[in-house]
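Note to self: the last two entries modelled the partners one at a time, which told us nothing about the interface. This time every component goes in together.
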Amino acid sequence: MNLDRRHFLIMLPAAAIAWKYVLAGTPEASPNYTMTDHWWSMLIDIPKCIGCGNCVRACAAENDVPDGHFRTWVERYHVTDWHMESPEVISPDGGKEGFPAVAESAGGEEGFSSASADAGKYFFVPKLCNHCADSPCTQVCPVGATFISPDGVVLVDQSYCLGCAYCVQACPYGCRYIHPEKRVADKCTLCYHRITKGLTTACCEACPTGTRRLVDLKDPNDPIHMFLKTHPIQVLKPQMATGAKVFYNELDGSVR
Amino acid sequence: MSLNKDAVHLFRFALLFVVAFAVFLVVRHFVVPKTFGEYGHYRGAAIAEIAARPMHFAGHETCETCHADIAEAKKAGKHENVSCEACHGPLAKHADDPSIQPVKIDTTVLCIRCHAESAAKPGGFPQIDPVQHSGGVPCQTCHQPHNGL
Amino acid sequence: MSGIEGYMYPNETTLYWSVLIVLYPYITGLVAGAFILASLVRVFNVKAVAPTYRLALLTALAFLLVAPLPLQLHLGHPERSPEMYFTPHSSSAMAMFGFVYLWYLMAVLVFEIWLDYRRDIVLLAQSTTGWRRTLYRILTLGSQNISPRSLAIDHKVGWIVTIVGIPSAFILHGYVGFIFGSLKANPWWSSPLMPVVFIFSAMVSGIAAVMLLYMLTTKLRNLPIDMPCVDTIAMYLFYIFILDFSLEMLDLVHRVYEADESFRTLNFMVHTRLYFSQIVLQICIGTLVPILLLAITQVKKLTEIVRKRIYAVSGCLVLIGVLAMRWNVVIGGQLFSKSFLGYTTYKVGLVSKEGLLVAIFLTILPLGILWALMKLLPPWPEKEQGPVPAATPAH
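The predicted structure of the combined assembly is written out below.
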């Protein structure tokens, strides 16, 4: 991007300038952004996640997420041996302050795939709205308050939402909630206000290990295309056929 | 004629429906937001409204425009790919007005979150037992995070 | 967080659809069921239940008027609910609500009641005074014509309205079942049987409600209960209940047999958190006992007083059982995690907007409205009012 970031940011508090574009109702008119040029998504590289919870904290700070509700969260899985149907999963406060340490199991070397049969394995799974291409949540909204934007982000029009919570019930992934004060549906917006200005999402910005990466599927230069070709990629609950767009590298079969 | 006289009440009942429907159409014309249906079954203006929300994180490229020296040093170390705000928190306000000081980091809490030893973390990731390693001494006593090790 | 067992997605720990959302299908179910009973007279010519015809229609209206209230109280922004009329989303079953409700209220129920009562309304417009007279005059829509021909036309049109009303009643209540049944995200709800089970249990509850109301109001008027009438109602109740129970058992057997990925968690939930409301209340007390009692009346010859007692007890148990069914569907569907790894609990508030007191009020309110409707549009001819044995002559 050739915009001088610092100068642009100084412009931000001068809301009058931004409002001109907002009132025009055409996001294309705001800085150099054409919706149809993009199809946003995210890549989550499971082997890299250390469960630090930076992403959960950053999202809460960036988007004023109310306590006890989560636009993104991290789960820790413990799968013993072949018991894939019954993993032990925890997500203390969504993983916001990280996770309690796990002591080395007897006979285990560095905590990952120990030789002992019942030590099992641990891994972290960050989750967020999957911005489904065939989303069941937008299908059930009675008034059209939630929708998928032309650039692939599922958003909520909070000045139109009735707060009926039908979309919350319809989401198979549990990524939606009703905002306790605004009394409307709320969820991850893929930091739409950032990605439309050439920045990345707050969670990707804060991730120290490169686990989370914003992806533009319509961009031929995006490294995602090579990554998809060279790694085993899954989505959550593929049997639901939601067209989920958040891709996971090396997602274990025990993940719910 | 005779039919009309005996059924006039039915026509009046039907008229109620017609009038109500007409009123509905008129009200609808004024009430439905103008941008509704622009891109799909939703209020088109909502997209721009959501895109205009305020930011709290400045993004590391912004930090680097002023703190280029630290960015250079970081490139040589292990924290090369850790963005500034991953540790220093949201700093858009500071980027707008540099006189606003960022919050001081407490390394005994911050560094631990990533580097505390846990069998749950990937094996290759640098982890230590906080008590055995430094006994509660602040991390920056021995380590320089901007230069990695 | 207390009350959580196992793992739930962090946003799932609160229940968003409360006891008021349990009440809504219960109320519309009573409406649909009462209307079906009325249609037995109008369309299927079951003359025996004619004494309950008008009562059934008024009951349906009383409950229908209350039906939107639990929904309005539940919405985060009830003031925006007109959006469902102005920009309904055609892929959403919930968007149908506004239109189906209005259609059923005005084009079916109010229309049919008005056609059946029109003669009485005109007479009352002529015989009463004060505000009542004004009200009745408005209801006549300016026509005082009650000639035999006009009444014959009314009767014919009313017959068509009832014919249209039957599928309308099914849609009014069936779409609620579809709201639940069409959600692939929730295995407790997702089922093609859901709308069908809802409709049949609605018929059972509506018929039982009208039967009980008829028995109660007749007693309050110190008149003998028309036994052929309640015997016939009880018979229909029995057979429709058998159908309803069969459908519910089909769903259960199918789940147990297929035992898909959700089965273990749902099975555990039914045996623990849902045990009392599902096994005890819905199945045993609310279904098996009334079916058994009604079966006895169908096969054995019993005295009038015994039959009346059985009908009263069965009717009450049925109403409790169908309410339990709605509870088990709505609340049960939110007690388990979509990760199939945990459960939460539902604590009904007492005085909150969606709490127990409001729920109780909303259940009693329709009875108050029914009382007012019965005063305004008396279901039975005046000369029947009065003590037994000799009715005083009409003034």
